[in-house]
Amino acid sequence: MKLDFHRNVETPEYMEMDLSPVSIQDSLEKTRRDLEIAYAGFNNAVEIDLIDSYIYEINSLQKRYKHLTDMAALEPEETPEGSYQHSPIRALVSHVFG
Q1: Residue 39 scores a pLDDT above 80
Q2: Which end of the chain has a smaller Cβ tally under 10 Å, C or N?
Q3: CA distance 73 to 88
Q4: Burial 9-44 (b: 16+ CB within 10 A, else e)
Q5: Do residues 22 and 45 lie in contact, with contact meaning Cβ atoms separated by under 8 Å?
Q6: What pLDDT score was predicted for residue 78?
């Protein structure tokens, strides 16, 4: 633990943020995992306020995921010309948004 002088409270060290650049693919993967966790929480919630919270979280993560897939679609492909690779992003988007 370390002391936070701005609030005079102790904060756990694991809360420090790593500000190194993150690729769009890494952000997509993290958002997908967060979405799975939010769906699991929603499926197990029984209190009205908690259900509402999960609904807002799921909607927020879906919008973030769509934004990231749109950004990924604009990135130039790194595959050699003439070769075809299946896009996992398209499969994930169709899975999440139907």
Answers
A1: yes
A2: C
A3: 11
A4: eeeeeeeeeeeeeeeeeebbeebbebbeebeeeeee
A5: no
A6: 64
pLDDT in tens, 18-35: 677 788 999 999 999 999
**Which residues share a beta bridge with 10?**
3
Asked if pLDDT for residue 3 goes beyond 70, the answer is no
Residue 95 belongs to some domain of the structure: yes
pLDDT at 22: 82
Does 8 fall in a domain?
Answer: no
Q: How many structural domains comprise the chain?
A: 1
Query: How confident is the model over 52-76, as pLDDT tens digits?
Result: 999 999 999 999 999 999 999 988 7
Residue 4 domain-assigned (yes or no)? no
Which domain does 59 fall in, by range? 22-75+86-98
Number of H helices, E strands in the chain: 3, 2
- Residue 56 CA to residue 7 CA, distance in Å, equals 29
